[in-house]
Amino acid sequence: MEELFGQFSLGLFILQFVLFIALVFLLKKFAWKPILDAVNEREDGIKNALLSAENAKKEMQNLKSDNEKLLAEARLERDSMMKEAREIKEKMINDAKSEAQVAGEKMIAQAKAAIESEKNAAMAELKAQVSNLSLDIAEKVLKSELSNKESQTKLVEKMLGDVKLN
Fold it and tell me: Cys staple from 27: which of 31, 42, 62, 154, with CB 3.0 to 4.6 Å?
């Protein structure tokens, strides 16, 4: 070891020290500043990227909550529309039933009225035919009974006797 340290030269030491200081000064002047600027720039870029990522994460959470709110609102709106549609359907069915019932009752009333009028017409026609038939029979009976003079006088006397009794 003495061999290595045995040849110490103060001039060489000072020269090496001056060169080292000059090297440090040159590095500080030309290399450290760009290196530190690049490191600071990189650090700022990383910070900005982290902030952007955090902001994006917050924005994604906001969007997710907004989407959930919109989805909940859409579900509520769908449910209300379905409820309204069911109510409209029930109303339409009930209206159709009541209209059908009213129409049915009206048709039944019309049928009853038509039956009654047909019945009355048939009864009137039957009465007319019965009266015509009765008149025809009475006419024939009277013609046969009143064909001679003696039966005519008997009939007139009988009728006069009935009138006096009443």
Answer: 31
